[in-house]
Each structure stands twice: as structure tokens, then as C-alpha cells.
User: Which sequence fits this backbone?
């Protein structure tokens, strides 16, 4: 096992708050990565996990600024969202490019660039993060409620519609981890007295239907598949149990899924996204290593969880930045060079990696909330993205 000194583990958690704060715009948006041109935008998915980590660490204002950014994006698109839901009810065909986007500029606009933008999970995930925040800190959700209601109605209407997955691929399938994010968002919305009784009941029914759909499909082979009807494994499936709770962490279906992920996608701590990954040669993702650790912590496998924390910390740069992925064990080494040429070195720091590390460090008691951030130099203002090279 890779080991890192306790003081370093703690410092990296405290520094993660600083990295995230530096990557947050005054509008509340979190840049996915400040140094990687293609990621100088804010994603609902990454942001939901980042806001949740900041909320856990006691950074209430940061998390709420992000929730405000999300709510503003939804409210600004109210007419479009209501029209989409209406067309869905009427059975109309909707083109992929008519749906809400997965990522936006810091001031909440579409990027104007080609991207695999139709992803539903983020519109559920931020509701989950908002609910966790509300329960943790007893904070009112009124400022976000109008946007949150639109998000809940949107994911309820399209809950079983195919969309791009967490990795922005495979648009023709219904992805289990996407369904789980929608489930968690709907379950949260169903519990909010601030929403109308109608919407709460739609949300509650939608969540129950999704849970049934996923369980019925998983029962065919005893574990969760990457997409409904398929067989492949994907590390994003960890989230179906931890943190989204669509299947209990100790359910036999979860146990079999984690075993399949361990067998196919884990190398001594590092976690691949899926077996056929070729992006940057298919490295091991730090956020997934920490997510697996979080799951281990939630089922009492503390030593395994600690191993994951050490593994992530051991892959920090000398400056204490956490990359998106590392290339110790590439799945497709012959595909690494083309990505380096196209987009430059792997995104570093990736805010989502820092968020998941911080969450795991808090879960394991390496740091306690409120976490005192390490601030090395004054914060530079976050700026808008330059034009992105084509994918
Ligand atoms: C990942 C997405 C992520 C985005 C920004 C992509 O490469 O596949 O899951 O949202 O990067 O971090």
C-alpha cells in the first residue's frame, strides 16, 4: 500500500478547499479545471459533488453560491423547460440539441461550442447536494426553490429518457448512474414542503419508478450494469449506492457490483472509468478512487477506505494539485499521445478530484469540519474560457 504521512493527508484536504475556492467565480460557478482550456466551464455534475464537499467542510457560502448559479440557469430557461415538458407529455420527438446543457460559462450561458451536452444526471445531482446541505446546516432553500422546482420537473419528465452518460458518451442508453442521480434529486424534492404538493407527488412517484426499473434490470444478472439491458461495468456505478442511495450499500446487488468493479477496474487503489476507456490512454481517475473509498467508509471497510485516501494523496503533484487521471496503468497506452497533442497535459488541478478527496478525508476524520483552508497566495479572479479546440 502507498502511504503518505498524516500531516500531508491533512494538508492536502485543507489545500483542496483553497483550490476549489480559487476555481469558483463570483457568479458561484466552479470551473471544472482552471488550467485546461476545454474544462474552463462549470458542469452541473462536477459542481454538485464540489458543492457537497464544500458544504461538508463548512464552506456554506461557497456551496450556496453554486446552488444560486444553478437555480439562476434554470429560472432563465423557464419557458424552454416548460415547453420541453409539455412536448414530452404530448409525445413529441425532441432533438438532442434542444435539451438543457451539461456545462455553462461562468455567467450561466451556453458555451457556443460543439459538445455532447445532453446529460440529465447533473439536474438531479445538484438537488441531491442542495438537500444534503439543507439537512446538514439547517439552511433555508427559499433562494433556490424556483430553480430547484424547474429542475425537479425537468428530470421527472425525462427520467427514463436516454442521454449521454457521466463520461459524456453513449447517448442511446439509459445509464444506471444517471438514473441514480435523478432518483436522488427527485427523492430530495419529494421531501421539500416549499414545493407544490403536485410536484412533490410527481417527484416521489418518479423516484420510486426509477428505483424499481433499476432493481428489475439488476436482478437479471445480480449486479448493476453500466446501462439498462447491458452487461458492462462502470466505476460511476459506485455512486448508485454511495452517495445516491438508490440501492443500499449492503444490498447484495451493490456488493456484487463493487466486486465486479474491483475485479475489472481497480489496480492497487487506482480506479479506471470502464474497461474500454481510451481518453488520455484510459488512466486511473482520482475522483473515482476517492468515491470507492467513500463507499468503503460507508460500509465500515475503514482500512480499505484509508488505502484509497493514501492512493489519491500519493498522486498529488509536488504543488499539492490533484489531476483528473494518472497514467501508471493505462488501458490503451497507444491512445495517450493523440490526446496530449490535441488538448495538452491531463487537467490539473481538477476541482472534482479535490472535492472527492476532501469528502473522503472528512469521512475518515483526517480533518474535521469546519476545515481551515491553506491559502498560499491571494486569490486571483477566475476568468472566462478562451476558445476551445475541437474535440
Ligand atoms: C468527464 C466528465 C466531466 C468533465 C469535466 C469529462 O472528461 O468525462 O465527467 O464532467 O470532464 O470535469
Assistant:
Amino acid at each position: 500500500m502507498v502511504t503518505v504521512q498524516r500531516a500531508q493527508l491533512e494538508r492536502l484536504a485543507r489545500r483542496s478547499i483553497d483550490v476549489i475556492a480559487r476555481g469558483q467565480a463570483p457568479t458561484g460557478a466552479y470551473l471544472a479545471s482552471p488550467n485546461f482550456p476545454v474544462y474552463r466551464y462549470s458542469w452541473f455534475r462536477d459542481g454538485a459533488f464540489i458543492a457537497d464537499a464544500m458544504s461538508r467542510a463548512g464552506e456554506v457560502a461557497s456551496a450556496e453560491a453554486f446552488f444560486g448559479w444553478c437555480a439562476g440557469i434554470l429560472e432563465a430557461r423557464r419557458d424552454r423547460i416548460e415547453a420541453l415538458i409539455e412536448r414530452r407529455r404530448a409525445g413529441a420527438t425532441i432533438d438532442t440539441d434542444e435539451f438543457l446543457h451539461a456545462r455553462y460559462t461562468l455567467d450561466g450561458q451556453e458555451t457556443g461550442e460543439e459538445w455532447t451536452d445532453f446529460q440529465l444526471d447533473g439536474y438531479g445531482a445538484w438537488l441531491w447536494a442542495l438537500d444534503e446541505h439543507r439537512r446538514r446546516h439547517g439552511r433555508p432553500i427559499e433562494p433556490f426553490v424556483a430553480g430547484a422546482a424547474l429542475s425537479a420537473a425537468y428530470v421527472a419528465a425525462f427520467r427514463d429518457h436516454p442521454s449521454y452518460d457521466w463520461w459524456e458518451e453513449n447517448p442511446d442508453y439509459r445509464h444506471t448512474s444517471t438514473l441514480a442521480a435523478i432518483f436522488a434529486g427527485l427523492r430530495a424534492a419529494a421531501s421539500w414542503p416549499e414545493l407544490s404538493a403536485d410536484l412533490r407527488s410527481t417527484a416521489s412517484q418518479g423516484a420510486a419508478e426509477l428505483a424499481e426499473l433499476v432493481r428489475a434490470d439488476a436482478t437479471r444478472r445480480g449486479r448493476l450494469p453500466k446501462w439498462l439491458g447491458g452487461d458492462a461495468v462502470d466505476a460511476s456505478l459506485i455512486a448508485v449506492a454511495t452517495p445516491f442511495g438508490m440501492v443500499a450499500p449492503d444490498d447484495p446487488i451493490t456488493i456484487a457490483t463493487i466486486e465486479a468493479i474491483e475485479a475489472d477496474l481497480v489496480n492497487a487503489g487506482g480506479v479506471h472509468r470502464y474497461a474500454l476507456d481510451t481518453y488520455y490512454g484510459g488512466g486511473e481517475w482520482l475522483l473515482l478512487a476517492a468515491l470507492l473509498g467513500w463507499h468503503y467508509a460507508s460500509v465500515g471497510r475503514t482500512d480499505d477506505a484509508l488505502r484509497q485516501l493514501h492512493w489519491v494523496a500519493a498522486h498529488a503533484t509536488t504543488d499539492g494539485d490533484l489531476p483528473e487521471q494518472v497514467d501508471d496503468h493505462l488501458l490503451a497506452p497507444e491512445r495517450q499521445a493523440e490526446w496530449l497533442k490535441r488538448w495538452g497535459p491531463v487537467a490539473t488541478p481538477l476541482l472534482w478530484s479535490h472535492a472527492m478527496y476532501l469528502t473522503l478525508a472528512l469521512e475518515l476524520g483526517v480533518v474535521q469540519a469546519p476545515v481551515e483552508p491553506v491559502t498560499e497566495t491571494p486569490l486571483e479572479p477566475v476568468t472566462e474560457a478562451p476558445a476551445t479546440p475541437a474535440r
Summary: The domain at 6-363 is CATH 1.50.10.10 (Glycosyltransferase). The chain has a mean pLDDT of 96. Residues 197-219 form the longest helix (23 residues).
